[in-house]
Specification:
mainly alpha, about 0% strand, about 180 residues, globular, 7 helices
Length: about 180
C-alpha cells in the first residue's frame, strides 16, 4: 500500500467519529466566512484530550501534545508571513496530536495535495452560477480577485480533508488492527 500509516485501525476508530464532524465544520466555516472558528479548534483539541487516553498508550498520548506545540509555532510563523491564516495555523495545531510523528510527512503530502486539488476545484466551482447562487453568502467565492499579491483561499479545505483521509487510512490499516 502506498500510504502505510502508523495510526492503527483501533486508534482511528476512536478518533474518526469525532474528527470528521470537526473537519466538516472547519470546511464549512472556512468556505462561508474564510474563518475557522476558535470554538471548532478548541473542540478538536478537547476531543484529543478526552479520546487520546482511550486510543493511545499513556506515554505516546503525552508526547502527542508536543506535536501541537511544534505545529502551532510553525503555523504562526507561516501565518505571519502570509502563507495562510491564523485559523488554519490553529486548526493544524489542534489536529497535530491526532497524527503519529512517523506519519507527519504522509499527512503533509496528503494535505498539500488536497489543498491543491481543492484550490483548482474551488476556482472552477465559483464560475458555476448555480453553485454561487445557492451559496451567495460564501466569502470564499470572492477570493483571489483583488490582486495577484493577495490571493486568499480557504486552506481549511486541504487541512480538514487531509485529516479525514488520514483517519480513513488508519481505519483501513490492517497491520495495526
Amino acid at each position: 500500500m502506498p500510504f502505510d500509516v502508523s495510526l492503527t485501525a483501533a486508534q482511528a476508530w476512536v478518533f474518526l467519529p469525532f474528527v470528521v464532524p470537526m473537519a466538516l465544520w472547519a470546511i464549512y466555516t472556512d468556505l462561508k466566512d474564510l474563518k475557522i472558528l476558535n470554538v471548532c479548534v478548541l473542540t478538536l483539541f478537547a476531543g484529543f484530550v478526552v479520546l487520546g487516553p482511550f486510543a493511545l498508550p499513556l506515554e505516546e498520548y503525552a508526547w502527542r501534545f508536543t506535536h501541537m506545540g511544534v505545529v502551532l509555532v510553525i503555523g504562526f510563523l507561516l501565518s505571519a508571513v502570509g502563507v495562510f491564516g491564523a485559523g488554519d495555523a490553529k486548526f493544524a495545531a489542534a489536529a497535530a496530536p491526532f497524527v503519529a510523528a512517523q506519519d507527519a510527512m504522509i499527512v503533509l503530502f496528503i494535505v498539500a495535495n488536497s489543498a491543491l486539488v481543492f484550490m483548482i476545484l474551488h476556482r472552477i466551482a465559483r464560475r458555476v452560477p448555480a453553485l454561487v447562487n445557492a451559496t451567495p453568502d460564501w466569502a470564499s467565492w470572492n477570493t483571489g480577485r483583488k490582486s495577484a499579491l493577495k490571493q486568499v483561499f480557504p486552506y481549511g479545505l486541504g487541512l480538514s480533508t487531509g485529516m479525514i483521509i488520514y483517519m480513513i487510512l488508519g481505519v483501513t490499516n490492517s497491520a495495526g488492527a
